[in-house]
Amino acid sequence: MKKVEAIIRHFKLEEVKNVLSEQGVVGMTVTEVRGFGRQKGHTEMYRGTEYAVDFVPKVKLEIAIDDGRLQAVLDTVVKSAQTGQIGDGKIFVSDLSETIRIRTGETGPEAL
Q: Looking at the 3D structure of the chain, how many domains does it have?
């Protein structure tokens, strides 16, 4: 089992969610996050004054999936979240050693 964490732009969330749902992904967690990468934030104007925004708002998706579906999910997220502009985000993949469904006590892939 794998855990996919994707940091994407806010306006791409609905598109990514819909495409993943069409592919049979039945659950995900969405969190609003702020951070910066290579772009190091940006500047904005407010009432005629320019100021720096160090932490850019993004959305983080967390998806737990079987190993066999990993590449399809990664390809889907990249294709649907990509704009071609700096700041499109990142995807992190990590191993899940165990998953437990609290309601039924199911473990492993059955708990997904």
A: 1
